[in-house]
Amino acid sequence: MGDDTVVYKGLGGGVLGPEGKRQFLPVALVSADQVDDGVSGTAHLFQERVTKAYEVRLTVIGGHMFPVAIHTDSEAAQLDWRTDYRSHTYEVVDMPSQVEKGVRRLMDELGLFFGALDFAVTPDGRWVFFEVNPNGQWHWLAVKAGVPLVEAMADALQGETA
């Protein structure tokens, strides 16, 4: 695939397959010559392909932000980390101040108290925003990275914002 390669992401949250196992459409690389007029009939999500050093799942709970790097050594997980959880290592990381300011503004503009935001960090340290999941998964990061997400969520549900 050449320079015209983009990333295709499914818009749905997946379906239940045989025996109730959740199935999802993983991210796929697509070149311009693979896309035809058939895409005009439904919604699709195409994104620029980003060279990643690692990805970050940023969990926002009220005024608290918990950025966790997801490192992988799997080729499949380099494209879509959801395809190979066993290849992951996790690390709490610092966010650049401009990213933190941008996230606060985004959350305020969208009126979201909670969000699970996905970023790629390029080899030169640039943070690239992909999406905010208003109902994204977070508990596995509390377990794997030792981040106090459960406590922050419990405090938020009790009305404590400090």
Description:
The protein is an alpha+beta fold and 162 residues long. The protein has 2 domains: 1-49, no CATH class; 51-162, D-amino Acid Aminotransferase, Chain A, domain 1 (2-Layer Sandwich), CATH 3.30.470.20. 22% of the residues lie in helices and 32% in strands. It contains 4 helices and 10 strands. The protein has helices spanning 75-79, 97-110, 139-145, 149-157; strands spanning 6-9, 15-16, 22-23, 28-30, 45-48, 54-61, 64-72, 88-92, 114-121, 127-133. The strands form 3 sheets. It has a 5-stranded antiparallel beta sheet with strand order 8-7-6-9-10. Strands 4-1-5 form a 3-stranded antiparallel beta sheet, with no helix packed on it. The protein has a two-stranded antiparallel sheet with strand order 2-3. The radius of gyration is 17 Å and the shape is globular.
Give helix and strand order, one letter per element, not per position.
EEEEEEEHEHEEHH
CATH architecture of the largest domain: 2-Layer Sandwich
Strand content: 25-35%
Number of domains in the coordinates? 2
Distance between the termini: 50 Å
Count of DSSP strands: 10
CATH topology of the largest domain: D-amino Acid Aminotransferase, Chain A, domain 1
Query: Which class do the helix and strand fractions yield?
Result: alpha+beta
- Identify the CATH class of the largest domain: Alpha Beta
Corresponding CATH superfamily of the largest domain: ATP-grasp fold, B domain
3D shape: globular
**Rg (CA only):** 17 Å
Largest sheet: 5 strands, antiparallel
Q: Helical element count?
A: 4
Which stretches are poorly predicted, pLDDT < 50 over at least 5 residues? none
Spatial arrangement of strands, main beta sheet: 8-7-6-9-10
